[in-house]
Amino acid sequence: MKIPSELKYSNDHEWIRIDGEVAYIGITDFAQSELGDIVFVEIETVGEILKKEEVFGTVEAVKTVSDLFLPVGAEIIEVNPKLESNPELVNHDPYGEGWMVKVKLTNPSELDHLLDAASYSSLVGV
Predict the structure, then answer these.
(1) Helix (H, G, I), strand (E, B) or coil at 116
(2) How far apart are CA 70 and CA 56, in angstroms?
(3) What is the radius of gyration, based on Cα positions, of the chain?
(4) How far apart (Å, rounded) are the C-alpha atoms in residues 22 and 43?
(5) Segment (H or E) for 24
(6) Which helix (H) or strand (E) element contains residue 78?
(7) Taken in order 114, 31, 54, 20, is the CA torsion positive or negative?
(8) Distance separating the N- and C-terminal Cα atoms of the chain
(9) For each successive 10 residues of the chain (126 residues), what is the average pLDDT?
(10) Which residues of 20-55 are buried (b: 16+ CB within 10 A; e: fewer)?
(11) Domain residue spans in the chain?
(12) What backbone phi and psi angles, to 5 degrees, belong to 119?
């Protein structure tokens, strides 16, 4: 299981990668493996400003549907367009091509409360 050291993680199994003024968010390798084969990603919050831990969408797998939670407060500025026709990218490349949303942070200090890779590894028992 991959847990890249350059990312921050939430207790809800989302990751965030800061890229200048924006950030990318997706679900972790652990989360996608627990969900199983992902068949649909629904995110209809583009343009909305959401608070930390608010639901920004859902992911549907063969065996379950799960909410997606923002690890930090942010404005949703883009949804990964590839996920509409290829939701399985989340299974195959959760930290790369399988990213879910691009956001603009509303309170960057919230990043300080997220987990680093070592802490997230402990959380999931790896």
Answers:
(1) coil
(2) 6
(3) 13
(4) 18
(5) strand 22-27
(6) strand 74-79
(7) positive
(8) 8
(9) 95 95 96 95 96 96 94 97 96 97 95 96 92
(10) eeebbbbbbbbbbeebeebeebebebeeeebebeee
(11) 8-110
(12) -65, -40
Contact indicator for 53, 12 with CB cutoff of 8 Å: yes
The pTM of the full predicted model, rounded to 2 decimals, is: 0.94
Q: What is the side-by-side strand order in the sheet with 74-79?
A: 8-9, 14-19, 22-27, 101-105, 74-79, 49-50
- Type of residue found at 22: V
Our measurement of the distance from residue 70's CA atom to the centroid of its chain's CA atoms, rounded to an integer in Å, reads 7
Q: Are 47 and 76 in contact (CB under 8 A)?
A: yes
Domain 8-110 has CATH 1.10.760.10: no
99 C-beta neighbours (distance < 10 Å), count: 24
Rounded Cα distance between 108 and 58, Å, is 24
Which residue do the tokens 């950030």 mark?
Answer: 23
